[in-house]
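Justification of computing resources. Each target in the renewal requires a structure prediction run like the one illustrated here; the chain below, 263 residues long, is used simply to show the kind of job we budget for.
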Amino acid sequence: MLEVGKVISKEGNGLKKFLSIFIFIPLVFTIITGCSSPQKTEEELKAEIRKEIEAEEKLRKELEAEISAEIEAESQKKEGQGEEQKEESTNVGQTTTKEVATIILSAFMTKDQIKEKLGHNYTFETEEADGYTSYYSRLKYDGIEFSFGHDDKKLPTDQYPDFIRITSNNYKFNYDFNIGDSALDAIEYCEKNFENGYDRHSDSYMYDVFQYKEDNTPKGATDRDFDVLIIRWKYNTSESFYSKDEISQDVKIESIDIFTPLD
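Resulting structure tokens:
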């Protein structure tokens, strides 16, 4: 019996020793592994932080570039839409900040021909007249007005205007001066290109009134025959001038009239 106990005791001690060795080996391995892992120095940690900061800075710059590109693209898109709207406004009403091309007209155009040339953005009215004709019709656009004298209530389709007033440089007839130009320069231009208008009351020619001519003006027509048109202008001053010598370069053209002389 004693021998058996000794044997068990010996076996128990061996098991304890075996378990102790089994636990000890992993512990030693852990200690050795932990000791063998390299410890990072302060410089290495700083380098890693610097690297992360640089990476974040690079990403931020890339995002800023993308956002700027999107904003620029959107801005250009809006500008393009704005230009299209301006062009549409020019085509419809010819009233934009863009410069409008000058429209060359003839004094020998009927109402329908004028509408075909200038479009339908106009006003038209007819009223009874007490004078040379029974009725007077006015066709008005922005910057220009055409007046027609006629005996029938309805304006004849083949009639030319008796009076044209131009107040905008968007329109021009057979002359080479503009609203706002020096009146003296306009007089000198007309002296070279037209004949002076004749005043029946004073039986003399007027220095600042001229017989207006176009290629389709009736040949041989004169002011005395009432078959030609007269061109003159309104000055930008209420002062009266009796000769060209009284007019200075500061006197400008305010509006231009082309009309049929009535008496």
